[in-house]
Fold this protein.
Amino acid sequence: MRWKKNRAEKDTQTVKAGAFMKRKAKNKMSGLKKKDLLRFKKILSTARAKIVGELEHREGDVLNKSQKEAAGDLSGYSFHMADMATDNFDREFNLGLASSEQQSLNMIDAALRKIEEGNYGVCEQCSRSISPKRLIAMPFAPLCIKCQENEEKRKRRG
């Protein structure tokens, strides 16, 4: 009975060691060193905190208020049509910004997950490493430059 327990523990350790080696190998595939990964993690975390703060501000300041509250008109009289149009434009504009910020936040979260999983800096389409210059310019880039260009060409055509 004791032999089976020890054998099971060794198998578990072997599986864990194998997973660690795979993670380590994937980091080597991207060509990034551990200190580079830590630097990108810090950049991504800082950008994430900034976007979360902007989203909270936008939500609390603009999106959770009624049209009257947002315009500052607390009287019981109706709005002028031009005022309503301006307020609607501002509201739509802020919704568009919030949507864009949410997309960026999702991409940053995906990049942070990739760092933890050990496959950060690897193109999602061709599995080649993304150049460090591209990652510096856009740390949450999921595609290498060549695949991104192909993706943009496909979007323009279709």
User: Anything to note?
Assistant: Confidence is low (pLDDT under 50) at residues 1-7, 14-28. The chain has one domain: 2-157. Residues 2-157 form a domain with the Four Helix Bundle (Hemerythrin (Met), subunit A) fold (CATH 1.20.120.910).
